[in-house]
């Protein structure tokens, strides 16, 4: 099947004399000083505004229609004034706690007078609060506000006052989600390490501190402005507390990446003899268009999260989407202005660095492309097998939510978790809350049935709510909250045990609690994932088809992107679920896979568009498919590698974060970018295009007529 090159070349005289991108970037270059001033003003304004207003992040973990959500709704309906927010003070003495009763009582009295403390249950007068060996006990601190309204400094005050008596063999640790949140580091180290490493790579690439600083400045301005806007947006919309670090992670990587792609094309045009103005125009008309298109694919992938219908992810999707949009705006306004202001010095440094280079730019990549094209089947098969092998562990991925059991062993929340598990059993840290809607006989039958289950260690007597219509039973599993056996217990109770009991008693039973909620979230994600994947992959493929006028290019891109995502999820499973490299074993955060899918799929399109658009440019110019691949890789290989290296160090730096979720994000994104940039774009894609030849640019005439034309290059 042959394709005439003339059918691929849109007539340049049909294009408008400069689109929106050309006008915006042109204005920024003509009014460079004003453009930079406006960006500085915007950054200062949103930073000051957000500082004065303050954030109001809220985690929306509601799952309408699930058993765990119905349990929460039942509590709100039948016990509306009750608060389920509390802090646990765990006490341990190897010689027994009885001699310490007086000191403990005095401490609990002090805690009861602290702000937002509604009451403190003394373990020595509360049934079941002291372990059988008398060495471990816990006191529950009830609060008068919801968790979202509890100031972190007040939680820290409870921690400090409680631990003041920790001496003479008495160990005092505190547990609960509020304690975990109050312990979290304020961050900053991960971002700082990533930025410093990115600067080193850019200096090595361009040989100039000034040239290396421009992509970094662009990213910092974009991320800084978006962070302020996110704080303001949290006052109006439901934005989860973990959105800011995720936004910074993606924003820094994407911001540096996009600016680097445009700056590299600008540098290339200067070395080919263009003056500064012409180099800027050409860079924005080619790489700038590719960046805009790539950014749109990232936005589509992120907004695809809305198809999941999960409130906790919608806020993150909107926050990160805003980051990408601000990054795109900074890339086509702030960066051109900086190139204009520092153009002379940049040109001198570019030419000086090029004069010192002993190699012709792109020679190594031409040799690699030639080597791959000589025997394309070998790298294609080996590369694909490697990706598939890395994908396999993801098939055994178990989703859940991190709890104190996956915290750093040095944290008080983890110590409290371990002490409770040792003193009361592993299931004590994650009790199941079973609700009975029926008469007292139905509630008593529920207690007997749960006590007889081999997976349950103990149950509490049924407790009637004030209105007498609903009773609750707490069941303590024999296994830890994050163990697979606990999830299997929840499934068995819901599918077999309780339905059979409902038939006998005519009552309604619901299983809730943290473990059940994690299982419900994982089930909701799994159920809606196919729709999400179809939306993201379908829309992205249509965009690629419109740009490159090809059916096979989008198909190839979608399949390879899915392989890189699967491989990154496989690595996450090996490290964080199986405990490789010393990581704390546990389930994968339930929303991490879909977030990684959305972000990685979008970012993978960056390299796809940048590489294939340059190949397409050469193909349109020469009509030689093999030469187009070689030249396209020669012009983009070093840039893609450098951009990938920057993303890898920025994402990988988040492995230094104390937050398990951010560690999983950082590792997953870093691995995906590594595989995508080095293995897929630089080896597998050239091999596939060599095998396809001119067929790579085939598009049926029926689609040619209906697809809009989106040009990434201007003649």
Automatic annotation (TrEMBL):
Chief location bin: membrane
Domain SSD: start-end pairs: 216-341, 520-690
InterPro entries: MMPL_dom, Mycobact_MmpL, SSD
Stretches that traverse the bilayer: 32-53, 193-212, 219-238, 244-263, 291-310, 316-342, 376-395, 531-552, 559-578, 590-612, 633-655, 667-692
PROSITE patterns for this protein: SSD
GO cellular component: plasma membrane
Keywords: Cell membrane, Membrane, Transmembrane, Transmembrane helix
Location in or out of the cell: Cell membrane
Topology of the protein relative to the lipid bilayer: Multi-pass membrane protein
Record protein name field: MMPL family transporter
Source organism per UniProt: Kribbella qitaiheensis
């Amino acid at each position: 099947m042959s394709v005439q090159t003339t059918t691929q070349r849109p007539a340049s005289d049909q294009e408008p004399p400069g689109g929106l991108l050309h006008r915006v970037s042109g204005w920024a270059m003509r009014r460079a000083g004003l453009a930079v001033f406006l960006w500085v003003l915007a950054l200062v304004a949103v930073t000051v505004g957000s500082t004065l207003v303050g954030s109001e992040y809220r985690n929306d973990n509601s799952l309408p229609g699930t058993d765990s959500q119905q349990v929460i709704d039942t509590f709100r309906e039948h016990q509306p004034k009750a608060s389920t927010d509390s802090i646990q003070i765990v006490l341990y003495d190897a010689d027994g706690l009885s001699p310490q009763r007086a000191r403990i009582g005095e401490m609990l009295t002090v805690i009861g007078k602290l702000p937002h403390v509604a009451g403190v249950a003394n373990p020595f007068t509360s049934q079941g609060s002291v372990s059988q060996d008398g060495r471990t006990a816990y006191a529950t601190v009830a609060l008068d506000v919801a968790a979202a309204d509890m100031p972190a400094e007040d939680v820290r005050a409870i921690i400090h006052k409680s631990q003041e008596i920790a001496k003479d063999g008495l160990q005092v640790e505190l547990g609960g989600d509020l304690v975990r949140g109050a312990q979290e580091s304020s961050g900053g180290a991960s971002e700082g390490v990533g930025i410093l490493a990115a600067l080193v790579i850019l200096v090595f690439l361009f040989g100039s501190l000034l040239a290396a600083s421009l992509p970094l400045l662009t990213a910092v301005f974009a991320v800084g402005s978006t962070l302020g806007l996110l704080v303001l947006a949290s006052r109006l919309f439901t934005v989860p507390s973990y959105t800011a670090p995720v936004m910074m992670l993606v924003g820094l990587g994407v911001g540096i990446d996009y600016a680097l792609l445009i700056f590299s094309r600008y540098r290339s045009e200067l070395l080919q003899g263009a003056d500064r103005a012409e180099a800027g125009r050409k860079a924005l008309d080619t790489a700038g268009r590719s960046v805009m298109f790539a950014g749109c694919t990232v936005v589509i992938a992120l907004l695809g999260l809305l198809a999941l219908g999960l409130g906790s992810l919608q806020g993150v999707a909107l926050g990160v989407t805003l980051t990408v949009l601000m990054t795109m705006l900074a890339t086509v306004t702030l960066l051109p202005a900086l190139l204009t202001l520092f153009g002379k010095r940049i040109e001198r440094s570019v030419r000086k660095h090029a004069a010192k280079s002993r190699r012709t730019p792109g020679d190594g990549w031409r040799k690699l492309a030639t080597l791959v094209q000589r025997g394309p089947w070998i790298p294609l098969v080996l590369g694909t097998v490697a990706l598939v092998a890395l994908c396999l562990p993801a098939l055994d991925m178990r989703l859940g939510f991190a709890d104190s059991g996956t915290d750093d062993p040095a944290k008080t929340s983890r110590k409290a978790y371990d002490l409770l598990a040792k003193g009361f059993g592993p299931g004590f840290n994650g009790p199941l809350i079973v609700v009975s809607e029926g008469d007292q006989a139905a509630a008593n039958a529920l207690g007997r049935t749960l006590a007889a289950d081999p997976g349950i260690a103990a149950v509490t007597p049924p407790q009637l709510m004030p209105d007498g219509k609903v009773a609750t039973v707490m069941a303590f599993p024999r296994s830890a909250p994050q163990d697979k056996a606990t999830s299997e217990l929840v499934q068995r109770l819901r599918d077999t045990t309780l339905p059979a009991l409902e038939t006998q008693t005519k009552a309604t039973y619901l299983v809730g609690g943290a473990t059940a909620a994690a299982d419900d979230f994982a089930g909701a994600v799994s159920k809606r994932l196919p729709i999400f994947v179809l939306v993201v992959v379908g829309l992205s493929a249509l965009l690629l088809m419109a740009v490159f006028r090809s059916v096979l290019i989008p198909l190839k891109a979608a399949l390879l992107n899915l392989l890189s995502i699967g491989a990154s999820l496989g690595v996450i499973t090996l490290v964080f679920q199986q405990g490789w490299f010393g990581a704390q074993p546990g389930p994968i955060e339930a929303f991490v896979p879909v977030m990684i899918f959305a972000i990685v799929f979008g970012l993978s399109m960056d390299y796809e568009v940048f590489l294939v658009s340059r190949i397409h440019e050469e193909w349109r110019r020469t009509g030689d498919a093999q030469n187009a691949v070689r030249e396209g890789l020669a012009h983009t290989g070093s840039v893609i590698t450098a951009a990938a290296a920057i993303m890898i160090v920025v994402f990988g730096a988040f492995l230094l974060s104390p937050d398990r979720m951010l560690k999983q994000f950082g590792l997953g994104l870093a691995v995906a970018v590594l595989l995508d940039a080095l293995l897929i774009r630089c080896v597998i894609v050239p091999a596939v295009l060599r095998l396809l030849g001119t067929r790579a640019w085939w598009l049926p005439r029926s689609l040619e007529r209906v697809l809009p034309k989106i040009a990434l290059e201007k003649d």
